[in-house]
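Re: the 257-residue chain
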Amino acid sequence: MLSYNIFVANLRREFIYMRRYIPNTISELIMFYIVFLGFFFGITLVGDPTQVDYNIQMVILNYVFWFLVLTVTQGLGWEISNEAGQGTLEQLSMTPYKLWIIMLARMTSTIIINMISITALLIAAMLTSSQWLNIDLISIIPVLLLTLVGVFGIGYTLAGITIVLKQVDYILQLLQFVIMAMTFVPITVLPILKYAPFMFGLQLIRDIAIKEINIFEIPFTDIFFLIINSCLYFIIGITVFKKCEKVAKLKGLFGHY
């Protein structure tokens, strides 16, 4: 019940923020859409004509997934940084609830609210390119949820670093380009990426959305690997976050910015 109350409170908070700062949300979507147009016209003009449809579908899916991953990974870091700047991080750490649970509820709420933006971006990209992905929600949602578990692990790692260092703007900005590079490289080109966070899940989503396979056609070994991979990165992220939280408490960093 307590976890549910935390989640509802954060969901209400995120909804109020989105409604109050709707011009910022719209401008962010426009910016991402303009960047997508750059990729789209680049592929149309200089890409292989025989592979143009497939390449455009890859760009749409990779781009929307990049936006989603940024929402989680950067979101946790920015939340900690903003709380520290507003002087409320210490108050959060003193509540009866564990800080990592509060952050989990907050980012889950952020994803739910941002699904409106992500859906709008996906539809706009498909309308612009006249390329329609196979949006099989029954197959995509389970794979996506499992993939996001690992993505949360990255977010917790960044949030832990932010608790100690406070100012990590350059790290967060650099990360968005690293994530972009990863999402736009297929595992078939660089197989070692299979062991990186979220990359194997993205490949399975590509197979569903572009090759039109369903979840029942995915080998159980692939699903099992995705579960192990995501859980491992989540555990690493939580461990790093708790270690950094402990260091911050010992050094009295929660009350300073």
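The mean pLDDT is 82.
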